[in-house]
Amino acid sequence: MLAKDIKNGTIVVYNEAPCLIEGIQVQSPSARGGATLYKFRARNVVTKNKVDITLKGTESLDDADFKKREVSVMYQDVEALHLMDTETYEQYALPLDDCANELQYMKEGQDGLLALIYNDECVGINIPATVELTIAQCDPGVKGNSATGRTKPLSLETGLQIQGPEYLKQGEVVKVDTRTGEFLGRA
């Protein structure tokens, strides 16, 4: 796969290890005949280490031999998150340390969860770019403050804390960006 074709969320092989691309920066050439540089921020999916990759536009990386399987959350214990493949009913256990960031955006019965399967073992989970979560607790809004751009802390059903507009009330469903953790709007 050419460097210019690599997108966020793509899994490529770098230094003989599968790496998930998490960020891309394009640097245009400053001189005539210079090559465009693509700087990728990636995470090794097996070791969880951050990796920086720099390629010219004409260089390429191989696609990793990965499978993405749609899964649902079965349960969570003190050591692992237990998932089940929705087609084959195969079960996977993912250590909580490996999915701590994703857990704050996940709830029971959520659609769009993809398990990353490498050598028949679940090494990670992909969550949708946006999720809908219910506000579990927030301070009441003060009348007359709806016209201002002020925000207040919102505690969501998964325990996630975000900032949202003052007009929101407890029990409302909001959309949250899972990449940044920011409030996007009402659901």
TrEMBL record:
Record-linked SUPFAM superfamilies: Nucleic acid-binding proteins (SSF50249), Translation proteins SH3-like domain (SSF50104)
GO biological process: peptide biosynthetic process
GO cellular component: cytosol
Domain Translation elongation factor P/YeiP central: 68-123
MF terms (GO), sorted A to Z: translation elongation factor activity
Classification via CDD domains: S1_EF-P_repeat_1 (cd04470), S1_EF-P_repeat_2 (cd05794)
Pfam families, sorted: EFP, EFP_N, Elong-fact-P_C
Sequence ranges assigned to domain Elongation factor P C-terminal in this UniProt record: 131-186
Keyword vocabulary terms for this entry: Elongation factor, Protein biosynthesis
Family of the protein in this entry: Belongs to the elongation factor P family.
Name of the protein in question: Elongation factor P-like protein
Originating organism: Posidoniimonas polymericola
